[in-house]
Every structure is written in structure tokens, then in C-alpha cells.
Amino acid sequence: MKLKLLATLACATFVIPAIAADVTYRNDIKPLIKAQCGECHGDDAPTLAEFDLDKERYKKDKLGPRTSTYETLLILVGWPDTGALMRRLDDGSSNADKKPGNMYKNLGETDEQRAANLKIVKAWVGEEAWNLNRWAKRGDVPGITKEQLDKLQLKY
Ligand code: HEC
Questions:
Q1: Among 17, 130, 137, 152, which lies 20 to 30 A Cα-Cα from 124?
Q2: Distance 7 CA to ligand 1 centre (A)
């Protein structure tokens, strides 16, 4: 009985990373981002560099930086906008003040949908790579480290 329980536990610990490892941009993230974010971050939205030149104008037009390709999304994870995707989509659990990011609401219509979609995005970024740090330290939040960056998954 004890052995059986141990075997079950052993299987469970192996199954979880296997699911996470299967999340890819092509199969999971592209359709999710298109459906939930495409209205304001689609092909007609400015690239991050363009957006940064004239933020106020784009914000007025309800446009954020483009996230419609793998590459445009990666720069909101790694560099130069380190952690932006995580800060905006976090449900508040990674935050000292427990406030969700301002794009979290766009992850779905219901709490359930938002939680499910966040889980997919987290698995894609890497469960252990999920943090809200920027490139440089800001206030109490430390800058990102090489060790943290090494944990990024981001499978195409
Ligand atoms: C109704 C329009 C709209 C939708 C839908 C939307 N966003 Fe945004 N998003 C914006 C606007 C406008 C900004 C710029 C203003 C701001 O920083 O809040 C922005 C900013 C961002 C930023 C910060 C970029 C930066 O460099 O500062 C990220 C990351 C982001 N959105 C991700 C997402 C994701 C992921 C989704 C889908 C789950 C999404 N957004 C859905 C309008 C939207």
C-alpha cells in the first residue's frame, strides 16, 4: 500500500513538468493571444519601439505594443521590456500588494477562464521563471538575474 502510494506520487511529479513542457507558442500561445489581446495588440498595433516613441497617442487609440508574433512577444518577456508580460498578466499572487496586473482582466470573461489562460501562459514562460522583475532594480523589486533568465522556457 505504502509502495503504491509512493509510486503514484513519483508519477505525479513527473507528469506535471511534461505537460508544461508541451506548451508551445504555435499551438497554445498564438491562438490565446490572438483571441484575448489581438484587438489592441494585433498586426496593426505599433512595435514596442514605435509604441515607446509616442505612448500617449497610442494609448488614446487603445493600442498597446504589438504581440501578434513570437518575436514581438519575446521582447515583453526578456528584453528590453523585461517582465512586462508577467507584470501585466499576473493575478496578484506574485505581487507584494496582491494587485493583479492591468491586463489580467483581458485573459478571459470569467475568473475560471482567466485562471486557466494564466496557467497556460505561466507554463509557456516557465513556472519557475515567472517573476515580475525588470531589467534594472526599481524600488523594492530587484533587477532580473541571469539565474532567473536561465529558467525561461518560451518554446516556439
Ligand atoms: C482593449 C484593449 C486591450 C486589450 C484587449 C489588451 N490590451 Fe494590453 N495594453 C493595451 C494598452 C492601451 C496598453 C498601453 C497602456 C498601458 O500600459 O496600460 C497595453 C499595455 C500592455 C502591456 C505593457 C506593454 C509595455 O511595454 O508597457 C502588456 C505586456 C500587455 N498590454 C499585454 C496584454 C495581453 C497579454 C493581453 C491579452 C491577454 C492584452 N494586453 C489585452 C490595451 C489592451
A1: 137
A2: 44
Ligand 1: residues with CB < 6 A are 36-37, 39-41, 48, 59, 62-65, 67, 76, 81, 84-85, 88-89, 102-103, 106-107
Name 45's Cβ contacts closer than 8 Å, sequence gap at least 6: 51, 58, 63, 64, 65, 66, 67, 68
**Residue from 9, 81, 140 nearest 66 by CA:** 81
**pLDDT tens string 94-105:** 988 999 999 999
Residue entry with cell 532567473: 148
Q: How far is CA 152 from the centre of its chain?
A: 11
- Average pLDDT for the chain: 91
